[in-house]
User: What shape does this take?
Amino acid sequence: MNPKPNNMTQTKMMRTNLAWLLSAATLSLPAQAALFAVPIDNASFEDPDIGTTFGALTTGWAANASTTLQDNASNSNFPQTIYGTQWGGAGNGAASGSIYQQVGTWDPNVEYLVSWLAGDRSNRLFLGMQVELWAGGTALGEGNDAFTLSGTELSALGAQLIESYDTPTDWSGSGVVTEEQSHVFNTGNAFTSGDALWLRVVGEGAPTGGPQQFFDNFAISEVPEPSVALLGGLGLLGLLRRRR
Assistant: This one.
């Protein structure tokens, strides 16, 4: 018969198990980013319901003339999205298309995980997109909103680029396909706390070939610092020390 473990043995076992759990929590930090999700208006481009092949993007996002809503049920060349029935589409012929919206306010050296679904239209080129983080300028609500800003570039508001990410395109050109994509941005330290923070998406244009980029289900989450994930565990370790 095995002897019953004494209190010191039990304490050592608990501390070993807790250390293992803390290590696992540290390794899984990116998966915890959803705990710090930042709201995005009309993230999956379902509003308004266009009910036809093409429609104007008027809800949540400021857009230029080369950005539209696309209904995936109306054209066999369109990819299917699991996030509803509509895509955002950018780029048309020689013109690049862009959309943007404010996603909160800027703070220094914060990391944001941005994710989205990219789609390739089978009878058009996919030249790629830039997903960007900007800061500064005139914030929404200060005499403007996304609808009235449509047709106005973000730089005209006085905002400045923090970082631009070129989406991968090596999967395109192989028929109707989609791909989940993501990138981690860092806000840096070149702005003032409380400045407007912006998410901007650009679809490439080209003189020939009529390129068009589809995108859907944008999400942005603040990546927690390791200290946040470990605070609870360290507190438990302190309690165990006091019990000895």
The CA atoms of residues 114 and 183 lie 6 Å apart. Confidence is low (pLDDT under 50) at residues 18-35. Residues 32-225 form a domain with the Jelly Rolls fold (CATH 2.60.120.260).
